[in-house]
Amino acid sequence: MSAILPPQHRIWWKQPVDKIEIVWIVIAFVWCMIMFFMMPYWHVFGKQNLSTETYRVKPELFAKATQEMVDKYTVRTEGPNKVPVVAPPAGSDVYLIARLWDWWPILELENGKSYRLNLTSMDYQHGFSLQPENINIQILPGYQHVVTVTPNRTGQYAIVCNEFCGIGHHKMVSRLYVK
Amino acid sequence: MATAAAQYRICPRTGLQFHKSAEALIKVNAVAGVVALLLGGVLALLITLTRWQAVHLIDANEFYLILTAHGLDMLVVWIIFFEMAILYFCSSTLLRCRLATPRLAWFAFALMVIGTVTFNVVIFTGDATVMMTSYPPMPAHPAFYLGLILFAVGALIGCFIFLGTLVVAKAEKTYEGSVPLVTFGAITACIIAIFTIASGAIILIPTFLWSAGYISHIDPAMYRVIWWAFGHSAQQINVAAHIAVWYAIAAIVFGAKPMSERVSRFAFLLYILFLQLASAHHILADPAVGTEWKVFNTSYAMYLAVLASMLHGLTVPGAIEAAQRAKGYTKGLFEWLRKAPWGNPVFSGMFISLIGFGFLGGISGVMMGTEQLNMIIHNTIYVPGHFHATVVIGTTLAFMSLTYFLLPTLFNRELILPGWAKLQPYVFGLGMGAFTLAMMGAGTLGVPRRHWDITFAGAALPYEFPGTALLMIAIFGIAGVIAVIGGAMYIVVTVGTILFGKKLDAGAYSTKVTPLRLPVQVSLVEDGGHGGGWGVPGTFVFAMVFLVAFVLYYFVNWKYLSTVWGLS
Ligand code: HEM
Ligand SMILES: [Cu+2]
Ligand SMILES: [Cu+2]
To answer: What are the Cα distances from residue B354, in Å, to B242, B351, B552, B562?
Structure first.
């Protein structure tokens, strides 16, 4: 019977199901399970998993920790606004502030070394988008997100904001270096 | 309007029975939707011509303002008004009964209109340039949230009227046995809508109070979790609704019956069961939510919902193939498809919607809903690329095709410009197809969404995207304009038909209800199984092609992920 009319058989749930449908259900189900197990699998064997290490944080405290890092490890400044370029030691906690409408400071990391990258926002939500690598992480005010990163290619990168954050959103772009 | 003097007519062309009050409500809701589509379409043209860097039409302030309005007027206003019309149609018309409480339905309609006007006024006066997601702590004027809440309350009332109408039909015995599959799909959409609107209320009411100054703080992480329980579920309403429309069109055009009521209804049931879990894939790149929750939520739930979609993806074309084969189109694998009425926009639109939704929207959605893979597309223009494939090619085009059926039967008008109507699904569907593919391409290269200027002119430390990204954006611009032309053709044909189309015989109104009695002899297809189990080989080949594309694309993205920086 047609789909816009009641089923012809009152007891429609006892009607046989076509073989072709059963075969497809089985195939689709197996594929769904493969996709499901890919995620835990990658947590065990893969090298790209987003950490969820998160703390509640007051913006002033985060700014203070960032300032200490800048005071200790600045190697030069860059751009018209003289943004400090900071080269902290491998393995350490490094801080990056997102705020209306810039990233602060510029980090200079060493290829193949790991760093604990600390992210937060001073005001609205922002989006950390590392280009051309294309790694994207949401940044929320009030939360300090710690992600361990291991660069695998030297060069100059850009950090673009990809969460709408007001009228200066499209100018919120900065750099990052890997030596 | 009083229920005692309920009036009915039988459409002489389709045999459908319309209750006079329901008929008026279906019409106004559908028309309100089309008006929103017209507004949203004009806005779409402006933002497309701005993101297309070579044209870069309007300035930044207006761009963000108009983008906020486009998102809401399309995704919320156009889609939900049209869904209200579908709910009333699937209950009162398909079950041949009166609509429960038409007066309340007018009240619900009025609330939705008032809500729409309210938030649009706030947006266009510049007090709510916050995008439709309105993430705190970025504030909007309180009337913005209030408008959304009023709209949602109206929609909620509409859902209850739909459920009430099902009760009326049962009590007054206007049909026998179980409700039709299409109505079952509408029930699915309605149940999901109730969950959705409840989540929306839980988050929008406190946010409204916050913006009005009564609450000091809205936690941004909590907001995102609950807002997306609303925002994601809302998309499941659309999916359930447009799949119901696919089944309806297969039945209307081909007299196709579901391959198996059991499988199709089970698939709808999976939607109801696993939907609430699937909101996590919007916050996979967030801090403050745990990995186990992300993995469980985005996958388990989603893959059973994905399973359901894969089933519908087989059974809808399968039903068409079976009906066509029964009519004698049995040569080879695909004669049934070649001989389908490609010049009938009701069918062509529906079929493009099905293919586009599955291949473009479905595969990309599952890829980006994978916990780790999400990091390589989060908040890039890939995301709107994906959802224009689902909610525009899928939902919007399905609703457009249904309109071509409703114009003669509900509005009793003959289509004007049949040549335009014939072409429209192709222009809109193929334009949108190229548009979404180009967005996905640009997103893979890192181009951000909701961004006025990806050349970063005037920034202190600008970045230059690769040339291919800009090429993708140019293709996106051209394809977007083509899609807008397709949308405009739809508006011209529908509005023109309602206003100027030749009047058709509507059938006389009387107080007599003509109930549905089994067995109903309308189907062109014989009853029974489909030839021992392998009756639809063409569809099965399609399904396998789909699976191969899916598997390849999925693993290509894992491969790409494996080359980026280590993250732990
Ligand atoms: C011809 C048709 C359309 C075109 C050319 C078009 C174009 C666009 C463009 C260029 C964007 C901006 C992407 C960005 O910068 O992030 C956008 C966003 C969006 N569109 Fe469309 N669109 C069309 C139809 C629709 C329809 C029918 C719907 C819903 C049913 C829709 C829903 C949305 C939504 C929800 C957004 C996201 C807004 C946001 O980011 O807050 N669009 N559209
Ligand atoms: Cu920002
Ligand atoms: Cu931003």
So the answer is: 9, 5, 20, 32
- Distance from C-alpha of B2 to C-alpha of B432, rounded to nearest angstrom: 45
**pLDDT surpasses 90 at A33:** yes
Q: What type of residue is B377?
A: I
Residues (pLDDT < 70) of chain B are 1-5, 275-278, 300-302, 517-533
B73 CA to centre of ligand 1 in angstroms: 10
Is B44 touching A (CB cutoff 8 A)?
no
Q: Dump the DSSP string for A72-114.
A: HHEEEEETTTTEEEE-PPTTSEEEEEEETTEEESEEEE-TT--
Cα(B130) to centroid(ligand 2), Å: 13
Q: What residue in A sits closest to B90 (Cα-Cα)?
A: A4
Q: What is the number of helices (H) and of strands (E) in chain A?
A: 2, 12
Structure tokens at B523: 């189907």
| Closest CA relative to residue A134, chosen from B440, B235, B329 | B440
Average pLDDT score over chain B: 93
Query: Which among B393, B376, B396 is positioned nearest to B385, based on CA atoms?
Result: B393
| DSSP character at residue B39 | H
Question: CA A13, A18, A20, A22 torsion: positive or negative?
Answer: positive
Find out whether B227 and B133 touch, Cβ atoms under 8 Å: yes
Q: What is the dihedral of CA B126, B204, B85, B361, to 10 degrees?
A: 80
Contact B161/B100 with Cβ under 8 angstroms? yes
- The mean pLDDT value for A130-153 works out to 97
By alpha-carbon position, which residue is closest to atom 19 of ligand 1? B71
Report the DSSP pairing between strands B17-19 and B8-10: antiparallel
| Mean pLDDT, residues A142-155 | 97
Query: What's the gap in Å between the CA of A68 and the closest CA on chain B?
Result: 24
Question: What pLDDT is attached to residue B276?
Answer: 62
Burial class (CB in 10 A: 0-12, 13-18, 19+), A88: buried
Across the interface, of B178, B257, B262, the residue whose CB is closest to A17 is B262
In angstroms, the first-to-last Cα distance of chain A is 69
Pocket-forming residues, ligand 1, beta carbon under 6 Å: B 41, 44, 47-48, 51, 67, 70-71, 74-75, 78-79, 131-132, 381, 384, 388, 391-392, 396, 449-450, 480, 483-484, 487
The answer to whether residue B467 neighbours chain A at the CB level (below 8 Å) is: no
Q: Which residues of B256-289 are buried (b: 16+ CB within 10 A; e: fewer)?
A: bbbbbbbbbbbbbebbbebbbbbbbbbbbbbbbb
Q: How far is the C-alpha of A158 from the C-alpha of B459, rounded, in Å?
A: 12
pLDDT tens digits, one per residue of A113-140: 999 999 999 999 999 999 999 999 999 9
pLDDT at A50 over 70: yes
Query: How confident is the model at residue B277, as a pLDDT?
Result: 65
Classify residue B527 as exposed, middle or buried by CB count within 10 Å of its CB (0-12, 13-18, 19+): exposed
Q: DSSP 3-state assignment of B359? A: helix
Beta strands at A93-99 and A115-121: parallel, antiparallel or unpaired: parallel
Whole-number Å distance between alpha carbons of B55 and B51:
8
pLDDT of residue B501: 96
- Report how far residue B549's alpha carbon sits from residue B302's, in angstroms, rounded to the nearest whole number: 19
Torsion angles phi and psi, residue B323, rounded to 5:
-65, -40
- Report CA-CA distances (Å) from B432 to A140, A164, B69, B527, B545: 33, 24, 20, 38, 22
Query: What DSSP character marks residue B275?
Result: T
Measure the CA dihedral B520/B524/B525/B526, to 10°.
60
- B515 and B450 Cβ atoms separated by less than 8 Å: no
Short-list B256, B241, B255, B232, CA closest to B185 = B241
What phi, psi does A96 have (nearest 5°)? -135, 125
